[in-house]
Every structure is written in structure tokens, then in C-alpha cells.
Prior knowledge:
By secondary structure, the chain is mostly beta strands. The protein has one domain. The protein is built from one helix and four strands; from the N terminus they run E-E-E-H-E. It has a four-stranded antiparallel β-sheet, with no helix packed on it. The longest helix is centred in the C-terminal third of the chain and has 8 residues, at about 50-60. The protein starts with a strand and ends with a strand.
Amino acid sequence: DYYNRLPNIAAQNRTFSTWAVGLQYHFTPLTRVILDYYVRGVGIPHPGAVTPLAKSIANSADNALALQAVIAF
């Protein structure tokens, strides 16, 4: 997934990217477990045009691991 936010305004331009890898295990046709791993990144195309706070926020974006159980009845 890729999103280029506000490319015409250098001070507010950000690029967001996400790669996802997932696994599913079906215990029964109505019960399953889903495990997803997301590799996320935030880029600042024009670092000279932003404040240190914006750089700090962009550096705080991290990867995510999600575990989900689906039980239908």
C-alpha cells in the first residue's frame, strides 16, 4: 500500500508505505486464526521544509503484528 500525501506542499508532503504478510489457519469451516505482520514506513521527501516534530513523528512509525480469532456460530 502506498500513499503520497499533499505532493504540492513541500512542508506537508509525506509518503506512507505498508507491506503486509499474513497467515490463516482454519480449525473448522467456521473457526480460524489470522496472523498478520505489517511493515510500515513514513517518508519525508523534503526534510528541509519540515519541523523537528514532524521528523520525530515520522520516525516513530513502526511495524505491527496482529493476531485475530474469528468464530462464527
